[in-house]
Amino acid sequence: MSDSSNPIKGMSDIFTPEVEVWQTLEDRARQVMTRFDFREVRTPIVESASVYMHSLGDTSEIVEKQMYAFETRGGKQVCLRPEGTAGVMRFVSGHLQDMQDGRLYYTGPMFRAERPQAGRKRQFHQLGVECIGTPSASQDAEVMALQAALFEAWGLNEVTFQLNTRGRLEDFPKVLEGLRASLEPHREDLCEDCQRKLESNVLRILDCKQSGCRAIVETLPPITRWMSGESVAYFEEVKSALDLFGVSYVVNPLLVRGLDYYQHSIWEVTSSALGAQDALAGGGRYVMSMGGKSIEGVGFGIGLERVLLALPDAEKKQIVSQEPPLTVLVSLGGEARQVNVKRMQEFRAAGIRVRMDLGGKSLKAQMKAASRCGARYTVVVGESEVADGTVQLKDMQDGTQQQVTSQDLLQRLTGA
Length: 416
Ligand code: HAM
Description:
The longest helix is centred in the first third of the chain and has 18 residues, at 18-35. The protein folds into two domains: 3-168 and 227-318, BirA Bifunctional Protein, domain 2; 324-414, Anticodon-binding domain (Rossmann fold, 3-Layer(aba) Sandwich), CATH 3.40.50.800. It has helices spanning 18-35, 49-56, 61-66, 85-93, 137-153, 172-183, 192-200, 211-217, 229-245, 304-310, 313-321, 334-349, 363-372, 383-388, 406-414, and strands at residues 39-40, 46-48, 68-71, 77-80, 103-111, 123-132, 159-165, 250-251, 262-271, 279-290, 293-303, 326-331, 353-356, 377-381, 390-395, 401-405. The radius of gyration is 28 Å and the shape is elongated. Helix 5 (137-153) runs parallel beside helix 9 (229-245). By secondary structure, the protein is an alpha+beta fold. The relative contact order is 0.12. A hairpin with a 2-residue loop joins strand 10 and strand 11 (293-303). Histidyl-adenosine monophosphate binds next to strand 6, strand 10, strand 11 and helix 10.
């Protein structure tokens, strides 16, 4: 393929047979959302850069390195959304009256200028949920239960919920101070990046992948040590509520998440079926300042490309095989074609998946095209069939062919 027919680096075309898997995942997700009474919101892909700049954190990796931000011809700073939460909060801030306990979900493309690799794209797709409301441990658990229901509906059973807490907002200075003091004696042994983070973003040292840094952070006390009793009690309540909702989890004291808006519960869902990029999803409770208003909520974002990567091949095959069988009508001559066009429209109205050549191809070319597009049945009509009101029905799977009357044909195809 020439360069001009490829999408740009880190982005993909999605087509059959993969697109059927996407559609099925989306359909199943919508059913789960309805059962939990969440409603869809569709926000623009392009937002004012200010919607994302401060809410995600000025020193977060996304804002520092990964935002596709640019100036419009009118001189306005905009960006391609790198995630969904801040854009949805921008929407919520304009509808606060009706959104006191808003239960929202969204799906669509997100953009991050990352180095592409397996499971890491520049355009990727998230299915996200945001539930508006002040901190409630049961609400956090319900949102995680919804997420667990999604993975179950998709046939992804080997997932792990890794849970931690960042504590309430007021505790942050103490946590950062405590962490900094514990890490300072190890400054020289930290990687260069983490030495810089000691000043700018000390929490992120906890999830550094370098073995030297890992060895140090594993000796530290959990960050709950520097939190208030209130924050610790909230975390305990979340764990009890998860038990009540029947969601299994493991506590990961080193989980911090890369976005600044979180407080209290944070979590990631990982899958052993994935490689280095093993996070299927991330979520947490947050507080965000948007349009002069402070909005609290809890939610998650699931990376759909990664869900597809983690999905067993057998499950994907099964999804694709659930497509209704295709019937191709084959016509010999103009009169047969007219009869078939009418028939095709009737069949479609009856719910049958059907198509035909409209351009006057030869019988051989029509049959070849039918097998190329995966037809299960062909219905061949020539002059004599038009005259006596019959068709030749061929089962492309076992190769058998039968003469059937036009009246019986629909019944045969629908199996009624
Ligand atoms: P996040 O952890 O940045 O959280 O992204 C969520 C998920 O999106 C990741 O776990 C991963 O599956 C997927 N993802 C992220 N970046 C990429 C990429 N470059 N290529 C492929 N997949 C990727 C958020 O975005 C938060 N908004 C989640 C949230 C919602 N928290 C509260 N509400």
